[in-house]
Write a structure and sequence with these properties.
By secondary structure, this protein is of the alpha/beta class. The chain has three domains: 110 residues, 4-hydroxy-3-methylbut-2-enyl diphosphate reductase, catalytic domain (Cobalt-precorrin-4 Transmethylase, domain 1, 3-Layer(aba) Sandwich), CATH 3.40.1010.20; 85 residues, Rossmann fold, CATH 3.40.50; 85 residues, 3-Layer(aba) Sandwich (Cobalt-precorrin-4 Transmethylase, domain 1), CATH 3.40.1010.20. Helix content is 38%, strand content 18%. It contains eleven helices and twelve strands. The strands form three sheets. The protein has a five-stranded parallel sheet with strand order 10-9-11-1-12, sandwiched between helices. Strands 3-2-4-5 form a four-stranded parallel sheet. The chain is flat and about 65 Å long. The relative contact order is 0.19. The mean pLDDT is 95.
Amino acid sequence: MTEQNRPKLKILKAAPRGFCAGVVRAIDIVELALEKFGAPVYVRHEIVHNRYVVEDLEHKGAIFVEELDEVPDGDHPVIFSAHGVPKSIPADAQKRNLFYLDATCPLVSKVHMEAERHFERGLDLVMIGHAGHPEVIGTMGQLPDGAINLIETTEDAESFEPADASKLAWITQTTLSVDDTAEIVKVLERRFPKIIGPHKEDICYATTNRQGAVKLFSAQCDAILVVGAPNSSNSRRLVEVAQKNGCEKSMLVQRASEINWKAFEGIKTLGITAGASAPEVLVEEVIAAFEERFDIDVETIVTREESVSFKLPRALRRAAAE
């Protein structure tokens, strides 16, 4: 296709998009641990849900494992992923005298502390989240088995029968659909008027902001691409939000190589965003792929500025300063 006859395409880039403060902190922890302690550094589970990020860290000397028994005895650090881990994991690490660094996002840790406080007050807990997601496993693992009841849908909320409806509290996974979660909470509050919610919403600022940005331009777009991994909860929610808010042709891609070009024939306006664990280099890669096929005009739609940052673990702060 010659430059002259390439079809015109308006690309709207959502802002904010991509990396959040928790993801930046988690990646920094792995890179600084490699710098300070040398390779290998072991990481339990993907540090964040993005293969590009994981493979980049592997090239630098990180070794990713699913369980602690895959980590050999010795002085090399083991890092817990941004999603958080059950209490049994650091306890096992201590038993083996492993040196560990916790890269759990502070906003996930906040939910862990909420759960513990409610439990100490004698309340039964409801967690709104997705079964099997590492964050849910980590949060439910802060308390004894059975102390947290998982609710995934409004149907679950309608059928849930607590031991004592007057002693209930709810928490949520941090990367859920804002609107879907509000519907579930509405059911719980209607059925159990005394249920206690978080002082400050558990769904994190980055999830909320990225969904808000997509909502704003969904109706203007013929198609929307979300750059992110299929196992990334916040990325998958962005696709759903786009589809529910006026752009049915919304899809998830990890890399430009995954784009189904037939799906974009005849479009005039494309929206692009990225999940909180997707680096900006992958967004630029997707835009460059479209530039090869279209005469593009790129505009950034800013809905909110973000300036959040989180402290590194004490063991790494000196290395970061040097």
